[in-house]
Amino acid sequence: MEVDTDDDLLESTNEARSKGQPPDVTTNLPQSYQSDEPNLKKPKQTTLSAKMFRNGEYQPLLNGSDGNVSEAESADFVHLSCNHFESDPEFNEIVKKVEYAIDHNVLPQRIYEGSSGSYFCKNFENKTVAVFKPKDEEPYGILNPKWTKWLHKICCPCCFGRSCLVPNQGYLSEAGASIIDEKLDLKIVPKTRVVKLSAESFNYLAIDRVKSRTKQNLANRFPNMRFDRIGLPPKVGSFQLFVENYKDADYWLRRFESDEPLNENEAKTFQIQFERLVVLDYIIRNTDRGNDNWLIKFERLKLNGTEELFKGLNCKNASKNNSVVTESSVNIDEIKNETDSFQREPESKEEQVPQASKTSVIIKLAAIDNGLAFPFKHPDEWRAYPYHWAWLPQAKIPFSQEIKDLVLPKLSDMNFVQEICNELYEVFKKDRGFDKSTFEKQMSVMRGQILNLVQALKDNRTPLQLVQMPCVTVELTKLKHHDKHHSSLQHQHSHPSARERLDSDVQFKQSFHSRSPLFSCW
């Protein structure tokens, strides 16, 4: 039995849409499947037209088999996309490719590690491009497929959850960490946004699957019947881009101690990246940072001795007379003499280290698993939730000038800090359980963390000394009437800031948090 091709189905569907009527899937079926008697029962459709309804609502299938999804093709998705990132076309394209792959049965794959339901999202070529963490499958979500947290709740309810965190908002925390990373130009958090996806591989209630199958069966049987949505309901969650060639920090930290010790330049590069992780974790007050949930990318370029020699000579001669040394134009004796003089009379400290050693290594960090951050109060009950990087030897080295130049001018400006708060508000307020007063408490904790960080950078302290500083909260309060009048008089005699964002009737109230948790590490 032969059926029409995808192009014929697409053409007939578009013609029906242009006339304002829902597409009739029976028009392109073989004659034996069509009937002039409307009361006769038609056999179950197993052709390509039936697949249209199994995947979406009255949407034609896409032509072609490659994973490159253009803007024109995205309008014809079977998947009813509610994800639009017009300001970030590159990220938007990745999301569209994942939706395209899901519609063509390349489903997200559950990650079996961890204590929540998270998924590797793939494109049409079956390549992992992102990690999706649905809200209702978080560690304390109602549809978490992992039984460990359920057992924890049943056996030890008094210690269940983290009392300092807003429950079931980990996906917002993931997106918030990405915002702070971008604002401070840290470049260690893979880009993360809040999206909505639906797929058969996600964990759904049985009633949702039954309703979905019922609607699809009705759509197959009665093509003219309209539904608001056909298929499983979309899940809101965090969508984080996947990073390649990274390994757990614990793996590389052990190798750095024994098998592959870092030289001076490599240690300096790693220290700068490490300090960026410290800045991020401290600002968002990450309560779940171990050495197994941040990643390190470490690659050494394998250069033989001849390549290192010519690379060093090229760099030296280029700095002197802009000449390029090549293997065919230099005599072996000249190379030997040049090398001896290069080793005997270094012009500066930079020449004592071969130039190849500076460019032959790649060290990058990736801060993932930021879902247990942004508390509305400092931990003060059972556990302190320490930063595990505080026990590393890198935490005993004072902050470098590079990190000071990067973040100190920004964090010293309270208007810039308020910009961060405003951007976080735009993301957090989309949650159904959003509470503005709780959000203000979260921002008070974050401002206090920033205040401590700025002071530690100015005092040339170490990351270990930073985490030992007293906990502070900085609240934003309204001025009283007479204080407001006095402030307005002072404002008239001062030069207004060109980048003023804070209202003139607000002030900051600083308070110290003296209560310590039962099990404290500091």
From TrEMBL:
Enzyme class: transferase
Organism of provenance: Brachionus calyciflorus
Subcellular location: Cell membrane; Membrane
Record's GO cellular component terms: endosome; lysosomal membrane; plasma membrane; trans-Golgi network
Domain of life, source organism: Eukaryota
Catalytic activity, reaction form: a 1,2-diacyl-sn-glycero-3-phospho-(1D-myo-inositol) + ATP = a 1,2-diacyl-sn-glycero-3-phospho-(1D-myo-inositol 4-phosphate) + ADP + H(+)
Compositional bias per record (Acidic residues), positions renumbered to this chain: 1-10
Domain PI3K/PI4K catalytic: 105-476
GO MF, any single term: ATP binding
Lineage: Eukaryota, Metazoa, Spiralia, Gnathifera, Rotifera
Keywords, alphabetical: ATP-binding, Cell membrane, Kinase, Membrane, Nucleotide-binding, Transferase
Protein name: Phosphatidylinositol 4-kinase type 2
Any one GO biological process: Golgi organization
